[in-house]
Amino acid sequence: MRSKGVLAAEIDVLVPFFDVDSLEIVWHGHYVKYLEIARCALLDDLGHNYVRMKATGFAWPIIDLQLRYARAARFGQALRVRAELVEWENRLKIHYTVSDAATGERLTRASTIQVAVRVADGEMQLVSPAVFLADVERRLAQDDTTP
Which SUPFAM superfamilies does UniProt cross-reference here (predicted)? Predict the structure, then answer.
């Protein structure tokens, strides 16, 4: 069973010509780009985007990427990509759903796992840095106070 995220962000993508093959089907590698755009929107919402990560002295490389394709996306198709924060205390795990924006039909599911690495010495952290945890908790608290 797939975990439900505690926070989510959605972005819309209109499949451009340069992302498709001769059959006008999105090349599988471009889905990773769509996930990245959604992940950036989620991290922006958390207040811990890549600029802030760098400023705090930690990089967050992706160490695992899983994709499951159910149906192909095509040239000119409007997609909705949803990123959901699933884990954050020891690693950053995000689940994604790529759907047709008009019908809601699911096309692809994915997940990524990132870990914190201290930039100064390249050492992987076994728990998420306190500054990241504070940003997540602050964002979660905002939802708790919204009427």
Answer: Thioesterase/thiol ester dehydrase-isomerase
